[in-house]
Amino acid sequence: MQSPWKPGVTVAAVVEKDGRFLMVEEETNDGLKLNQPAGHLDPGETPAQGCAREALEESAYEFEPTALLGMYLARSRKSSTGEDQTYLRLAFRGELGVHHPHRALDKGIVRALWMTPDEIRASVDRHRSPLVLRCVEDYLSGVSYPLSVIYTHENVLLLNAR
């Protein structure tokens, strides 16, 4: 019997400062790739909390989501196994906070860097996902939705209370 289809849920921080976007360079099975600070939503957290956590873990910058940029769905094939994967990405815009330069970055993250939109556009072949550039373009177009469009029932947060 085939297992039911379940897309992975990821959260991403789209952070702009002085015309540059915060990106991370990370080790993958396909070599070094570029991405926004992003990762899987963990049990017991809201999407906004997960985004703030991932931004800190991957870039050493605090980040406070203030708006939903969008929800994005994309497929990819795992190079190591050929497995077809689908991801639902919730991308957020928000406020850049304190940088913790001595904080260790997540496993696989080589460095955080700031890139212009043109540099991001010119490096599409190095993007971890086709959603990386789309999120930047939506940000630049002014796309923004209130955080209240994402409702998290209190029973999700109870997972942290166990």
From TrEMBL:
The keyword tRNA-binding does not apply. The keyword Hydrolase applies. It is an enzyme of class 3 (hydrolase). Residues 4-137 form the Nudix hydrolase domain. It comes from the Bacteria. Pfam families: NUDIX. Keywords: Hydrolase, Magnesium. Its cofactor is Mg(2+). One of its GO terms (molecular function) is ribonucleoside triphosphate phosphatase activity. Its EC number is 3.6.1.-. InterPro entries: NUDIX_hydrolase-like_dom_sf, NUDIX_hydrolase_dom, NudJ. PANTHER family: NUDIX HYDROLASE 23 (PTHR43222), PHOSPHATASE NUDJ (PTHR43222:SF11). Monomer. Belongs to the Nudix hydrolase family. NudJ subfamily. This is Phosphatase NudJ.
